[in-house]
Write a structure and sequence with these properties.
Layout lengths: L8 E5 L5 H15 L6 E3 L1 H4 L6 H11 L2 E6 L1 H8 L3 H17 L5 E5 L4 H4 L10 E2 L6 H13 L28 E2 L4 E2 L5 E10 L8 H10 L10 H12 L5 E9 L5 E10 L2 E10 L5 E2 L4 H18 L6 E9 L3 E4 L5 E4 L5 E2 L4 E8 L4 H12 L3 E2 L9 E3 L1 H8 L5
Parallel strand pairs: 1-2, 1-3, 3-4, 4-5, 12-14
Antiparallel strand pairs: 6-7, 8-11, 8-13, 9-10, 10-11, 13-17, 14-16, 15-19, 16-18
Helix pairs in contact: 3-5, 4-5
Length: about 400
């Protein structure tokens, strides 16, 4: 186990496959040595100069290092298995030390080229390797490697809790479960629920790792807290408190003060995907649920992503997959956008109690965004069975006034 306040020493073992490969290894060593990594790197191109003995350098490096990175390629495998050159000599020392210690917290195989069977020497066949073959995900893979070197896994085992207190059967009273395992919905005598599941698939940002995408999303918050509380709260609070490069943030289920009403929001940002959930539960047969509140979050995420694309000088290219489900066919509603026409009946119909819709964006303008929001409202129809019109017609003038500042 390495002391947390000790500077870690890493030796990089690799083969000189090509000038391009040598430069990749040198770049890796430079990043390991730089700010934010703080690792002392032993590398032949740093430390092996004219007049020095190669075998002595390799022996000292393997023995001195806290971690040894083995950069695996087909050429590396061939030289190691056949004990050719410096790689073969290093490999002999590595196998000897491994079998003497009967453990492997020192040697880290890194697959750079080829499939695992093509690049892993025989001795490393049973050891899990770290994949760095994809240059588009280099930053993410590098951050994961730093975690391995420092033995700081992204997911840690939680502290062991206390044993349960067992209650005898005669003391158990009639209870109501908060969770229905089949539907994973909060019930708690709530007669009405509505849930949105929304996925933004970022085709043109797919090569952005979690850290940079997270920073871009956070730096492009254009929303006033007065207009929308949840999204800025999620992004800003997570930015201040989280040391993880990805966002997994959830606002817990909570009661509204005036009536029995539960609300839950969740936002997850991963590579190439933004996942948002909005759920509500009420205790009336027909409840004034804010089921279209999710539309404002969709709108703000669209304009944030538009700003990110402009910042990266890229054309907008993403899709949104939206799913809605409810246990009620008819629901009252509250709209975050002002409407110009409202049909007479006071409830809306959700055909089959569920809906799915996909939106594609190749450019972001007021027209494309307005049309998308209208498409979302078209999920709901007036209760008049003779009418299949959308329940709400949006006020375009008010929409333009609300959104002008986002499209300047």
């Amino acid at each position: 186990m390495i002391e947390t306040d000790k500077t870690i020493t890493v030796f990089i073992s690799y083969s000189w496959d090509s000038d391009e490969h040598k430069e990749w290894v040198l770049n890796l060593a430079n990043k390991l040595s730089g700010d934010g990594s703080g690792i002392y790197v032993i590398l032949d191109r740093y430390d092996l100069g004219v007049g020095k003995t190669m075998t002595q350098f390799m022996e000292k490096s393997v023995n001195q290092a806290d971690r040894v990175l083995l950069i695996m390629t087909p050429d590396y495998k061939d030289k190691a298995d056949n004990r050719v050159g410096g790689v073969g000599y290093e490999y002999s020392m590595i196998t000897q030390e491994f079998y003497e210690n009967q453990s492997n917290d020192k040697f880290i195989p890194i697959r750079r080229k080829g499939k695992f069977d093509e690049s892993a020497p025989k001795f490393l066949k049973s050891i899990i390797s770290h994949d760095m073959t994809n240059d588009l995900t280099f930053e993410k893979d590098f951050n994961d490697l730093i975690r391995v070197i420092y033995n700081e896994p992204e997911i840690k085992r939680p502290p062991l809790g206390k044993k349960p207190v067992f209650i005898t059967k005669d003391l158990i009273k009639n209870t109501i479960s908060l969770i229905d395992d089949n539907a994973n919905l909060v019930m708690c005598k709530m007669k009405t629920y509505a849930k949105w599941t929304i996925d933004f698939r970022l085709n043109s940002l797919f090569d952005q790792n979690k850290t940079s995408l997270f920073k871009l999303v956070n730096s492009n918050i254009l929303i006033d807290l007065a207009n929308k509380r949840a999204l800025p709260e999620i992004l800003e609070n997570n930015y201040k408190t989280s040391h993880q490069p990805n966002i997994i943030y959830e606002i817990p289920l909570k009661h509204q003060k005036a009536y029995n009403h539960l609300v839950n929001e969740k936002l997850i940002i991963e590579d190439g995907l933004i996942h948002y959930e909005f759920s509500e539960y009420g205790d009336q047969d027909i409840w004034l649920l804010s089921i279209t509140q999710a539309f404002s979050t969709i709108f703000y995420l669209i304009v944030i992503l538009n700003s990110i694309h402009k910042q990266l000088n890229r054309d907008a290219n993403f899709s949104i997959d939206i799913n809605f489900i409810s246990d009620r066919r008819s629901l009252l509603y509250h709209s975050p956008f002002k409407y110009s026409q409202l049909f007479d009946l006071q409830t809306m119909i959700i055909p089959d109690n569920k809906a799915d819709i996909s939106l594609e964006f190749s450019e972001i303008t007021k027209d494309t965004v307005f049309n998308s929001i209208e498409n979302l409202y078209s999920i709901f129809c007036s209760e008049n069975p003779k009418s299949q019109h959308p329940y709400v017609l949006l006020d375009r003038q008010h929409f333009d006034m609300l959104t002008d500042r986002f499209f300047k």
